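U., I forgot to send this yesterday:
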Amino acid sequence: MRVRELADWLGATYEGDGEREVTAAAPLETAGAEELSFVSGRKALAAASASAAGCLIVPPSYVSDGRTLIRAAEPRTAFARAVSRLHPRPAPEPGVHPSAVISPAAILGFGCSVGPQVSIGEGTRLGAGCVIEAGCVIGARVTLGERCRLAANVTVYDDVDIGDRTILHSGSVIGADGFGFVLQEDHYEKFPQVGRVSIGNDVEIGANSCVDRAALGVTWIGDGAKLDNMVHVGHNCRIGRHVLIAAQTGFAGGVVVEDYAVIGGQVGIGDKARIESRAVLGSGAGVLSSKIVRAGQVLWGTPARPLKEHLEQLANLARLPDLRRELAEIKERLKQLERS
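Result:
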């Protein structure tokens, strides 16, 4: 693709050789003469002059050194769009593999692709252009919107609603029973999990992540939410719109996460906690049951506390060995004074 064509498609401006062909995207450090890269941040600015990339996507303030450039207000975003253009995902042929088992009462929209060994249950509806890869199991009364993609070996239990353009990666499980048990004398009785799961549009759920169905009511994930690999969403949770959740994070039942919150990796959140809009939880944080994290707060540590307080406590902990030595010296001086 020519630089001028790419710039026009991005709605950006170019400088230099607009006829130069770029065939792939690559990191700044390794990009070659036919490859595209981008400059964003101070480190990248310093490394740009040494890059052999055929074309760079740069911010408007970048000082040109005579090379071929595309200027964009958000270089990282523009580069992400360019990558999708230069490296398009192969589109599978529409149709149903002969080994797939599909209920006669299921409805498949126009242009769906259903791979080998897929099972689709009674009353399930797939929107137009859905891609269901090998080994997926989709239960009864499931609704998928248009252009959803289920990677190999995804499991969707009965009574789940999924919006348009949602991506479920391999091994993810949607709609399994929540963890609900009641102690009856000397043993636990299972609390029936008869609710549903509802997932919005443009959601992406990573490999081996699990979203449990509600005990009663709905476990809900809002439009544009992005879950990394190995995330667990417990029963009756409500995850808001455009929430980001990194790997190995777990939500106990009934947690509410409001829109645009960001949650780092390996965070644990107790039942019925509330994370308000645009709050940030740092990696490894622990949020106690029923705690409210206020809008816009940045919390770290276990138990989670404001970042400044967390850093002060870490600094104090680092001083403990010195304080111990100083205390030992003081005690020794006291002993000497008592003996004198």
